[in-house]
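Why do we care about 3D structure at all? Because function follows from shape, and shape follows, mostly, from sequence. That is the central idea of this module. The next example makes it concrete: a single protein chain, its amino acid sequence, and then its structure expressed as tokens.
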Amino acid sequence: MNCLQFHVGYSETIEAVGSWAGVAPLCYAFYFLGCIETPSLVSPSLLTLETELLADLNRIDEPANVQDDQIFIYHGTNDDKVAPGAADVIYDYYAEFVTDPSAQIQTKTDLPSTHCIASDHNGTPCGETNEELYIENCEYERRVGVPVM
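And the structure:
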């Protein structure tokens, strides 16, 4: 289970989520490697329908709980493990559930990092894979719901 699945599955309790180089909830169940290799073939609509079905079966919390949540999506342009288009699938997935996608879903997809969490003070230089910690110093730090000054 990835953090996005956890967020939606327990949306009655969790009110925000940040995705770093991730894939959309339930993606592996339908697309397996397509999620990371060819995200342009992934249908966010299918994933949202499956999410609603799971909620109807009382397997997860109601996705309507996500409507007011804040979502942050990060993906580096040089990610060699998950194709950068995966961020678009995540955005489109959440856009089906939130009230105002442009205000509630924040994205950062223009830094030349690899598969990592971008930092403003730790890790290898931005774009240099850190196989041990997956942290790269891209002089960038962002927290969901915290305004950038």
